[in-house]
């Protein structure tokens, strides 16, 4: 038997000859407001609904804005996250979370709001999209755990999305030769050699000092102990590496050993790669060094010049084999583009192609997770249909022979 509701005995008021039940409640701002109903049951339902709305509004007003809570969450992360990681988190939170959602109360954010905020992010790379979604989920799950929100709007947002990131292939032997010929004797040469033949990350190369390069040992090697990053464009060298696995000793092939011997003889700096003053490169200085490679490629590019105070854009469309119009020492010899990471990717790919076992590749690459190594390993080792044909065909031939014998 259903339990009857205990409905209060409300007062009444007559309006235009009609009797209404009336009561007063306080709204979210503390102001007394009157509610009316033709029956006590109708008025009771109105009071219940109004109280729910008032309670919800008060709850929402007590929650922080997205900007306030995101900044608090970042501050809490700073206790156990690397400085460079914090820089990345802070930049993404500011540009992709606070900018579109910062003015809203945490409790007011809906799933549609999250999806709308992610639209411009979807135009970025897959890694950026994934990183922003991860930060959104972390922030809102933290708020949910602390009872600041009732509904988590990120629960049904997929972690992956946006435009799939195109994986750049490693450099071919021919491209490596062309690249090294193009920059021989130029500032990026040693950097490129360390990427191609030691597989170091950019921050590991720019943080490398001569005290970690052992050229006179029976087996020459280098030790990865330091990393480079910049703060306000100024270089900072730290012993805090990307992961624990990043700390490693890497044997040097002969070509790299000879390159480093020559570089050390001419060096007056403690850094293997340095600026003219012998100091670690700033971010701007590194970009200038890398520009030696870009300017020798056939990549179309636009630059700005000022003529009589007027800003004029120029587009350069290089032709392979020709010289640059404003610099006869620059010849467009590279019909491909290169990134620092591609040098490292080429190193890892070459190890795998030479049948180096996955655990050794993982160590030399400084991968903390074997999954990263095995994903690359599978693509390189097994994405060879011609080589795999004999293996696959042989396996099924043996199976068919076995079936025939049983018959």
Automatic annotation (TrEMBL):
CDD domains: INT_ICEBs1_C_like. The keyword RNA-binding does not apply. Signal peptide: none annotated. It comes from the Bacteria. Keywords: DNA integration, DNA recombination, DNA-binding. Residues 166-390 form the Tyr recombinase domain. GO terms for biological process: DNA integration; DNA recombination. InterPro entries: DNA_brk_join_enz, Integrase-like_cat_sf, Integrase_catalytic, Integrase_recombinase_N, Integrase_SAM-like_N, Phage_Integrase. Gene3D superfamilies: 1.10.150.130, Intergrase catalytic core. One of its GO terms (molecular function) is DNA binding. Site-specific tyrosine recombinase, which acts by catalyzing the cutting and rejoining of the recombining DNA molecules. Belongs to the 'phage' integrase family. This is Site-specific integrase.
């Amino acid at each position: 038997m259903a339990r009857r509701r205990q409905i209060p005995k409300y007062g009444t008021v007559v309006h235009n000859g009609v009797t209404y039940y009336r009561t007063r409640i306080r709204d979210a701002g503390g102001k007394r407001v009157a509610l009316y109903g033709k029956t006590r049951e109708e008025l009771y339902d109105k009071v219940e609904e109004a109280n729910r709305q008032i309670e919800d509004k008060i709850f929402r007003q007590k929650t922080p804005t997205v900007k306030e809570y995101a900044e608090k969450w970042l501050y809490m992360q700073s206790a156990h996250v690397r400085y460079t990681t914090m820089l990345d988190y802070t930049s993404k939170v500011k540009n992709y979370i606070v900018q579109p959602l910062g003015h809203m109360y945490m409790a007011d954010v809906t799933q549609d709001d999250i999806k709308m905020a992610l639209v411009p992010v979807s135009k970025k790379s897959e890694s950026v999209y994934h990183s922003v979604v991860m930060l959104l989920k972390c922030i809102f799950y933290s708020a949910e755990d602390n009872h600041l929100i009732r509904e988590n709007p990120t629960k049904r947002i997929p972690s992956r999305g946006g435009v799939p990131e195109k994986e750049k292939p490693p450099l071919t032997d021919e491209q490596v030769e062309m690249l090294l010929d193009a920059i021989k004797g130029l500032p990026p040469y040693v950097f490129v050699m360390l990427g191609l033949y030691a597989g170091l990350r950019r921050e590991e190369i720019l943080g490398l000092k001569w005290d970690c390069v052992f050229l006179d040992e029976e087996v020459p090697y280098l030790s990865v102990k330091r990393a480079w990053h910049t703060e306000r464009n100024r270089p900072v060298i730290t012993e805090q590496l990307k992961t624990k696995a990043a700390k490693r000793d890497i044997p040097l092939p002969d070509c790299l050993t000879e390159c480093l011997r020559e570089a050390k003889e001419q060096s007056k700096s403690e850094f293997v790669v340095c600026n003219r003053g012998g100091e670690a490169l700033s971010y701007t200085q590194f970009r200038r060094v890398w520009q030696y490679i870009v300017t020798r490629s056939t990549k179309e590019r636009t630059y700005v010049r000022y003529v009589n105070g007027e800003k004029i854009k120029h587009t350069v469309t290089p032709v392979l084999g020709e010289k640059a119009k404003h610099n006869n020492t620059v010849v467009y010899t590279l019909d491909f583009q290169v990134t620092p990471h591609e040098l490292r990717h080429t190193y890892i790919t070459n190890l795998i192609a030479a049948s180096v076992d996955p655990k050794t590749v993982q160590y030399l690459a400084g991968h903390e997770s074997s999954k990263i190594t095995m994903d690359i390993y599978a693509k390189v080792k097994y994405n060879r249909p011609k080589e795999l044909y004999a293996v696959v065909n042989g396996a099924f031939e043996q199976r068919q022979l076995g079936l025939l014998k049983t018959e």
